[in-house]
Amino acid sequence: MLPRENLPRRGQEARPARHSPAYRALGLATAALLLTSCSPAVFQPAPVQAHGVDAAPALAGTGESDEQPESPADPQDADTQNEDPAADEAPLPALAAEVKDARDAQREAAAEGAAALAEAREAHLQELAEEQERLAQEEAEAEAELERQRRQQEAADEAAEQEAAEQEADASPEPAPQQPAPDAPADSTFTGDLDAYLADLAASHSGDISISLTEIGGQGRSASTTGGESRVSASTYKLFVAYGILDQVESGEMDWDDTVDGGRDRATCLTEMISLSDNPCADVFRDELGWRGLRDIAAETGGPATDFIPAYARTSANDLTAFLTRLETGQLGLSQDSRSRLLGALGSNIFRQGIPSGSAGTVLNKVGFIDGYLNDAAIVRHPQGTYVLSIMSEGSDWEAIASITRQVEAALY
């Protein structure tokens, strides 16, 4: 700056001294001094290099050279300048590829996780189904075991009752000689009227008794006393169930190898239902045939008094005799194999205290007993002829049934 005293003064016309030519020359000189004293870097920035092309300086003509030095002062700068120019572009495509690979890996991992989850869910559902099946089987086995125990208890109770009755009879006083206890009263002597004879036999034994008789061959005689009366069938209803199963197997709707109860197949179950009076097998068969199906079977086999209701199945002595007569004569509509199977099961029946005990022939029978009802229906192959005898009773006993059988055979033969 010039000392104030060296500055030009205002002119006479009162114009500012800075507007005079001398003042302007002084300003230009000052500006030139400032330009020469400042660093050239302020007005000439470093060249910008893009893709190998050097940018021109911002200000030209300042005396600086446009050429770059051959060797940079910093070795690191020299290494940077010697690198491939395409390296500046490499990081972006590599990063994009890496991001894409990462996303693909995430999608693949998510798909694998979903597949593993679905497979685990399917395995869990399978385990639940198997567990439910196992529980159902265990429940069925438990129910079957309870039923077997119940049957054993019933048999034990019945045996105890019979033993008590026998002990009571043994303890009773001997009858007077003038009052013997014959098998039948004097007025039950057979006179040729079988109906009257059977009525006398029923009246001469304890309990309420129905009797039905049909002779096969020979004279073909037939008779009954209250034979058409509907009574509680007890296990004699299993004859009609057996017919239904035999018919279903013949039609191909069922198979003998089917597992039915407790690992037993259908063939074993049918035999034991008849010969042992097995209840679990009968329950399964009854459910398979249905109540309506059993009613149809009763109608087909000629049983007007036979009916199936949830509480008790009912039938009559005449219906049982008609069924067994048609079975023995081959008129039941079954094949020879089915007929032989059912006849064989009847022949292996273990309950022999009733008709088998009173007969001199070979007996194929089915019994039924429950709550004081005692029934026995049989095909009797006597040496002198074959006949069918059905006895249904309430409040009677096996000995009464055996006694009636003996007297029937005495009248027939």
Descriptive notes:
The protein is of the alpha+beta class. The protein is built from twelve helices and twelve strands. The chain has helices at 21-37, 40-43, 75-82, 91-171, 194-203, 238-250, 266-275, 279-300, 317-328, 336-347, 355-358, 398-412; strands spanning 49-50, 53-54, 208-216, 222-225, 231-232, 259-261, 264-265, 307-308, 313-315, 362-370, 373-382, 385-394. The chain has a five-stranded antiparallel sheet with strand order 4-3-12-11-10, sandwiched between helices. Strands 5-9-8 form a three-stranded antiparallel sheet. A two-stranded antiparallel sheet has the order 1-2. The chain is rod-shaped. The model is unreliable at 41-46, 48-83 and 169-187 (pLDDT under 50).
